[in-house]
Amino acid sequence: MKSRSQLTLKVQLPDDETFASFQVGENQSVVNELRSFIEGNSQYQTQAMYLFGPTSVGKSHLLHASCAFAEAQQQSSICMSFSELMSFTPEVLDGLEFYDVICLDDIDLIAGKKDWEQAVFDLFNRVIEQQHKLIICGQQSVKQLNISLPDLVSRLGWGYVESIKALSDDDKVSAIQLRAHQRGLILHLDVAKFLFNRVERDMKSLVSSLDELDKASIRDKRKITIPFIKEVLL
Questions:
Q1: Stated pTM of the model
Q2: Which residues sit opposite 49 in a β-bridge?
Q3: Hey, where are the domains in the chain?
Q4: CATH number of this structure's domain 4-163
């Protein structure tokens, strides 16, 4: 069996995806539970959590934030997506149980792939044996995942299970302002609303647009204004 020191997987987490930068909207209870779970103070007697919701509701952000929070608590962590893992064989999961907190995204992708389903189930059991913590995200509820291995379905529904609610339009505007503020940028409300109304309204597109504006602002030494957004993005 591999030890943690033998693992070759290296993942760089986004440094701006923390609990502090997450616009909670209707998801405050989920954030609170994630914190308690990592700290070992959860009211749920479980070593696993399953979070689900459609694309761009912040699932990946919450996984990255969980790892950052774990590291701040002097706990080791790793965060990976099955979109990356499945370019390897299922044995890539061997040894992940030696991390204190393991976060896995996009579990939908293993549905119907028996070798991967068995490998994730085996990982569950090893994590439980090590008394560590596993957080998994997917786009569908456990019953809708179309996982064919009954034991894995049972494991996924065994711990804390919760859906991630989409942000309202006002919350998205506030979220992009928060991201800008944490980067040292001033994004006035009228400017944030203009940006929101001119690009795709999912958070991934909004953050990507902010990244582009941030780089252009530094390059041109200009503030982010409505005319500047028109020049850079439109």
A1: 0.84
A2: 135, 160
A3: 4-163, 169-233
A4: 3.40.50.300
